[in-house]
Hints:
alpha/beta; Dihydrodipicolinate Reductase, domain 2; nine-stranded mixed sheet; Gfo/Idh/MocA_oxidrdct_glycsds; Gfo/Idh/MocA family oxidoreductase; GFO_IDH_MocA-like_dom; NAD(P)-bd_dom_sf
Amino acid sequence: MRIYLIGAGVIGKAHAEAIRKLPAEDAIEVKVADPNPKALAAFVEAYPEATAYSDAQAMLAEEANEDDIVVVGTPPFTHFELARMALETGRHVLCEKPLVMNAEEAKTLLEIAKRQNRLLGCCSDRFLGLPKTEEVKSLLQSQALGDVYKISFVYRVQRGRSGVEYQPESKWFLDRSKGGGGILIDWGPYDFTVLNDLLQPESVDVVAAWMSQPKTQIDPTDTKYDVEGHVGATIKYNLADGKSVWLQYERATCTHGEAYHHVEVEGTLGAVKWSPYFESDEIVFKQDKEGQVDAKESQLPYTGLYNIMDHPIYYFYLQVKGKETRAIINEQAVFNFLCMQAIYECAESGSSKTVSKLRA
Length: 360
Ligand SMILES: NC(=O)c1ccc[n+]([C@@H]2O[C@H](COP(=O)([O-])OP(=O)(O)OC[C@H]3O[C@@H](n4cnc5c(N)ncnc54)[C@H](O)[C@@H]3O)[C@@H](O)[C@H]2O)c1
């Protein structure tokens, strides 16, 4: 099998690490392309098994094999063109989050993937398959919570801006024309992948949304900085059984308010609180017992060989091999992206926005 990495930056290296863990029976040939000679040299020093190219098109010029995989790990404004080019060479494409920059690009890529009979995957599936979130899913499915009516999904960080406090060398995070947005486009792909996996909605109504860019005394002045640091939305999830669940969504990467996170599903018979990400492996399940709140706490750590950063490569590799997997591909990848994108559209237009599940 051949895996072609486009982009030799931070995430390109994480993918190379994951490729090393893939089953040994598959001899995997790794190739990498990046026009930045420094990034390419650092990559090849760390991963000498990779053949290096300065140009992605040149790397993909050889004839395609049935199971070739191209991984697009470059800044978002390049995803569409690189993924389109890679699909058109007849290869499966796994694209970093965010899938693309806007709804039109997402739909066009899906059409090309279908026409080429290739898979289009998105790395927003990193946090799928964790035992704690699987447990929450089974609580929902078993009706242990009764009728679920509300989800709080709130992550507020005071100073955590990509391109400022985190990975300050990658200034593209701050420029909307390059990154597509701020905290929403950075973390929203994961949030809506986790939420859509839990709730399996038929459609999603973004009823109201807002965003802001809180200021600090170290705001960048030497580079374009026009992305949001704080966003919120009220969203209605319409489920297959005709019921609906309200989602209170909020993400801050810069706020003068309190830092906290709160992810909780509330139903008529119980509630469950957990963190789908790094903060903790604890689940707190609350029910009523004789008129009193009865809380059960459990720890569900993840101990698999493939860690969160390995998941996108591992899941997509299984998908290409035709095996059962948690990979997010094709219609689901585009639907998840559109749910997040609808928050931008609603915040900008002031009008609600509905996104319906795409059928294969
Ligand atoms: N850094 C993280 O922690 C992280 C985590 C998850 C996902 N991601 C996603 O990965 C993507 C890349 O982020 P990053 O942090 O690795 O960025 P980065 O700035 O570290 O690296 C991006 C690399 O892409 C290269 N590049 C740009 N245009 C190219 C082209 N046309 N062909 C080949 N290479 C090209 C650049 O030269 C650079 O080396 C983004 O979509 C980001 O959202 C990043």
